[in-house]
Amino acid sequence: MKQKITLILFGLLLCIIFLEIGLRIGGFIILSLREGKNRCALKEKGVYRIMCLGGSTTASGGEYSYPSQLERILNEGNIGIRFKVINRGVESADSTSILSQLNENLDRYLPDMVITMMGENDGSETMVFDDSWKVRLNLIIQRIRVYKLAKLLWLHLENKIQEIKYNKSGPLNIDFVDKHSNNSAIESRIFYEKSLIYKNEKNFSEAEISIQKAIEIEPGNYDYYIQLADCYLAENKNKEAEVILREVIEKQPDNLEALCHIGWCYRNQGRYKEAEGVFKKAIAIEPGEPKPYWELISMYKFQGEQEELEDLYGMLIKKDSKNDFFVGLMATSYLEQKKYQKAKEYYRKVNELRQRYYNPVTRSNYKRLKDIVMQRGIRLVCVQHATRNVELLKRLFDSTDGVIFVDNEKVFKDALMRGRYDDYFADCFAGDFGHCTPKGNGLLAENIASVILAKVFSK
User: So what CATH class is 46-126+359-455?
Assistant: First the structure.
């Protein structure tokens, strides 16, 4: 039995290694394009190098990310200095992960200035950064892209060990690992991850091919069907998406993602009552999930259904007036509707909620980042997220001496008064802000540039 278990463990390890290699090759193709630009900054002499750190709000957007637009805006200022902006944002990175790579990034890129916009991904599992083996090991595990999959495979392995214990008859079969180690699940996962990469590159035809291969290998995984429907929706193939999503919902009536996707499908076709029905069903299934609320709000605003919008807001107020996500969402929605008094009231409420609590891990990591950067004589710029009060960011520091802060509250609130939320944000993952559109990233870059030029280069 020990020999069988050893074979299973060995097979499992090989599968994980090959999967990790496959995923990283795909990720490398995307990141190498950005990294090539970063390396070019090192070759140019006499330039002022700015390094941007953060999560997806910094990393995403390609040529329309805020770091890319910041470089263009600064150079268009023609102040006699050539700027190079290095984007070291990492998708889903929390402040501990950012801090763990800080010295390496500083040594490699030798920036004159560091800009940070971080903390949005800090949660209950985020650890205060230090140089202990425990934190380092935890970060290494988190960076392995197959970490979650490995946990699932471990459960599968435990089941197989139990099978062996109760099945001792028969000779040892060398093909046991190949037949029983869940290779199909790993292979399908590779195609799934590839489809995500293609989708992020807007290469939807290749994304469809990859996810269809994953479905062929593992037809019982409904997440793959939703991913295929997502590709169809991105290409405005609403009928094709609807067929797939109906099949998923028939098998899993309470699948929140499938319900939200078919709601988008109905909305895209102008079938608003059907969309409203599924979004409301999604809320009933998972009252704490923000996505269906936001979709309903967007749809009501688009249709001008003010009474339904007010009813939904009333439900949110009764539901949880202490949840800063929902309060922030309502504040931004009222602002966009030009109901300034209501918006002011809810922004005041959400600021009061946030002033009562701050994440101690975020605070500790920000303070440490400040010490490291400023000890090297590098300028530090800390950027507050769009629409949020900069004082909430300042209070994370014992002393703000020497730190340049960028307040994005007024510029984004003014923009939302003039335009639509969707003009500036692609989603609402934080309630009162989300990942920026190219236009939103442009506004962010313009504001950061104006602060830098005024406070560092005004002379």
Answer: alpha beta
